[in-house]
Amino acid sequence: QVQLVESGGGLVQPGGSLRLSCAASGRTFSDVNMGWYRQAPGKGREFVAISGYLGTTLYSDSAKGRFTISRDNATNTLYLQSNSLKQEESATYYCQVLLYWGQGTQVTGPS
Fold it and tell me: Which of 7, 28, 32, 85 has the most CB within a 10 Å radius?
């Protein structure tokens, strides 16, 4: 059974950085796409970035240039990095693989 466990959330200080991790287990992940989504209170879940199994990456317009998605297939871990998080990007960030979702990790941007 596939399990996804996100970590790394918390309060991001002005000028601070964010690095989220998603530990995946239950199968091989080197042959599937892996992605990050986020959901702010009262809003729908929105796409942030995806890491393709062939090495490609795709970002939402808002994430492009400010977020970096990466993966380590040796450890089945997906990452999301940002060095310029905005306050309005405070949300629960979710990892997604195939039809599976993690439980999410809460991120609060700088006020």
Answer: 85
DSSP 40-99: -TTS--EEEEEE-TTS-EEE-TTTTTTEEEEEETTTTEEEEEESS--GGG-EEEEEEETT
Which tokens hold the place of 75?
Answer: 């450890």
- Residue at token pair 């297939």: 73
Rounded to whole angstroms, how far apart are CA atoms 88 and 101?
23
Q: CB–CB of 78/36 below 8 Å?
A: yes
Helix (H, G, I), strand (E, B) or coil at 104: coil
b/e map of 77-86 (b: 16 or more CB within 10 Å)?
bbbbebeebe
pLDDT digits (tens, 9 = 90+) for 58-100: 999 999 999 999 999 999 999 999 988 888 999 999 999 999 9
